[in-house]
Design goal:
The protein is 36% helix and 13% strand. An 8-stranded parallel sheet has the order 2-1-3-8-7-4-5-6, sandwiched between helices. The longest helix is centred in the N-terminal third of the chain and has 20 residues. By secondary structure, it is of the alpha/beta class. Keywords: Hydrolase, Manganese, Metal-binding. It comes from Streptomyces levis.
């Protein structure tokens, strides 16, 4: 089975969609483990974000809308350069708003899908999101819902169609609904944590890949990994914690299946906060998880 080779790493240390609490150090921390060498990857560049503005935008209700729009275009340029060189982009965030730039790079080229691995569905609208953080809205924005400055980047929105998305492993549906988050649309393929457990991680991943690789599914799919999809007991180094989640082995199985499919075109890692991992144990474990997933997919 074809897999992933010729990986190129793009550093995307933006917290414009969250807060500067430490997530901006994700890329440096993972690279400090020797991740690039372990993957045989080159460093394709670092996209620095514009200054962070802590004031919520009055017109859109979100933090840093203009900055995120500009950053998304710059990140799309970097990711696009990797793709044009025939390489597989591994984007190290950053908060989840970096997904918009990654998907913009794909949308400039063709129709693609999205495997969305996240403990939350991130489908808020600004009026319901308590702090106006785009890191809680990026899936809604990517599917064309929300302020136009972010939901219609470069006039290309939506960046991904509902039917071309599989959201897998989330466990926040009831909690988020209580805050007023809109439900996931019916055409979007939802596999919450209980479904993944009932099917088993391997079967859930195979079904997700099948949905994203079938006829009419586009030219491949992006994989988004928010590390809070992991069990909170195993991955407490995140800013918004909630009980339960995937085991390391379940995550490795899902990533391995996704990367071995031959139709994954890129991967981003977001939300891990190294400042909440003072001895580096979780940083090394996360790097090891990624290496094993890529090795199995090669």
């Amino acid at each position: 089975m074809p897999g992933v080779r010729n990986v190129a790493i793009v550093e995307a240390p933006s917290v414009l969609g969250l807060r500067p609490t430490g997530v901006e150090d994700l890329a440096s921390a993972l690279l400090g483990t020797g991740l690039a060498a372990a993957l045989g990857a080159e460093i394709a560049g670092r996209v620095e974000p514009p200054p962070y503005d802590p004031e919520r935008d009055a017109e859109t209700g979100v933090l840093n809308p203009g900055g995120i729009a500009a950053y998304s275009a710059a990140l799309a340029d970097a990711v696009g350069g990797v793709l044009d060189g025939g390489r597989f982009p591994l984007v190290l965030g950053g908060d989840c708003s970096v997904l918009l730039g990654n998907l913009l790079a794909l949308r400039r080229r063709d129709r693609h899908g999205l495997l969305f691995l996240d403990g939350h569905t991130d489908f808020y609208q600004p009026e319901a999101e308590p702090a106006g953080e785009v890191a809680s809205m990026e899936l809604a924005l990517a599917t064309g819902r929300g302020p136009r400055v972010l939901a219609d980047l470069e006039g290309r929105g939506p960046l991904v169609r509902d039917a071309d998305v599989v959201a897998l492993g989330f466990r926040d549906a009831e909690e988020s609904a209580a805050f007023g988050m809109q439900p996931l649309p019916g055409a979007l393929h939802a596999m919450e944590l209980d479904t993944v457990r009932a099917l088993g991680a391997a079967e859930a991943a195979r079904r997700a890949v099948g949905l994203l690789s079938g006829d009419g599914a586009g030219a491949g799919y992006w994989v988004h990994l928010d590390v809070d999809v992991l069990d909170d007991a195993l991955m407490p180094a995140v800013d918004y914690r909630q009980p339960d989640g995937l085991s390391w082995q379940e995550l490795e199985t899902i990533l391995r299946t996704a990367l071995a499919s031959g139709t994954a075109v890129g991967l981003d890692v977001a939300i891990f906060n190294p400042r909440l991992d003072p001895d580096g144990t979780l940083t090394r474990r996360l790097a090891d998880c990624l290496v094993r997933a890529f090795d199995a997919g090669a």
